[in-house]
Amino acid sequence: MSDVALTWLGVDDLTGGEIPREGASVLLIDLADARLRQLIHLPPSVRDVQDAAKPIAGPRDHFLARRAMLRHLVARRVGMTASNVVIGHAEDGRPQLVTPETPLHVSVSARGTLAALAISTLPVGVDLEPIGDPREPVWDVLHARERGGVEAMWKREGADWPFLSIWTAKEAYLKAIGLGLKREPARLHVSYETHEIFIIHDPEAQPHQYAGATCRAAIGDTGIICSVVVLPG
User: Fold this and answer.
1) Are 120 and 24 in contact (CB under 8 A)?
2) Is the pTM of this model over 0.90?
3) Second label for 188, Cα 20 to 30 Å away, from 13, 103, 138, 199?
4) Which residue, of 102, 122, 142, is where some domain finishes?
5) H helices of the chain, where?
6) What is the percentage of the chain residues whose pLDDT exceeds 90?
7) Looking at residue 203, what DSSP letter applies?
């Protein structure tokens, strides 16, 4: 990671715990969690309604619920009322703060009702994948240096979590730099220094290496893998 401290958060942190005012935070939630019911009913802003109508938004109810949670997270971070937080989209499609005017960056990843919401003082990208019945890895998105280890685990144990760790790391990085899948994922090489910390090797970037972190956790009864990259200042 960059020099920014990273904190993983859950529902209890959002509803009554402490939200760090510095560094980067990633909130992992299930929108169907009954503890979020009141927060999800935050009236949508004009920008929320406009963005919910875009094709990339997906199911409207899920989009508006995620946007409400992100507005609450920002509000808790900066010490203001969630109804006064406005979030829109940058030209490259990334979510961005409109109000308050503060140098904070946000990123969102979702699978159904599961969501990862990231907020940071530096550009950030986050990606989440559920761990369910193992699925064969998508081999053509892997770098040549990644394939051997992933293939060995798949053949030996039928495990797809090594692939999901690498895939979420790549997605998080591409979101952080604002390109999404406009870049070829196989050009990136992910190497894990520990079970949590990885290095992204990008031959087309300067510098060529960026660090990130991966979390294996449970949201309710669902296991997930979530990766986050915070770019250096």
Assistant:
1) yes
2) yes
3) 103
4) 122
5) 11-15, 37-40, 46-52, 60-78, 144-157, 161-176
6) 85
7) T
Domain membership flag for residue 1: no
Task: Report the CATH number at residue 202.
Answer: 3.90.470.20
Query: What are 213's strand-pairing partners?
Result: 197, 228
- Give the Cα separation of 224 and 205 in Å (integer): 29
The CA distances from residue 203 to 10, 126, 210, in Å, are: 35, 21, 11
Q: Does the bond joining 207 to the residue before it have cis omega, within 30 degrees of 0? A: yes
Domain count within the chain: 2
Local structure of 55: helix, strand or coil: helix
In a shared domain, residues 146 and 87: no
Both 111 and 191 in one domain: the answer is: no
Q: Give 18-75 pLDDT, tens digit per residue.
A: 899 999 999 999 999 999 999 999 999 999 999 999 988 899 999 999 999 999 999 9
Residues 65 and 159 in one domain: no
Place of tokens 């952080």: 176
* 151-190: pLDDT as tens digits: 999 999 999 999 999 999 999 999 999 876 678 899 999 9
Name the DSSP class of 207: S
Q: Which domain holds residue 95?
A: 6-122
Give yes or no for a contact between 51 and 70, defined as CB atoms under 8 angstroms apart. no
Do 109 and 15 belong together in one domain? yes
Residue count (the chain): 233
What's phi and psi for 76, nearest 5 deg?
-65, -35
Q: Which residues does 44 contact at the CB level (< 8 Å), separation at least 6?
A: 52, 64, 67, 68
Task: Give the pLDDT confidence score for residue 168 in this predicted structure.
Answer: 98
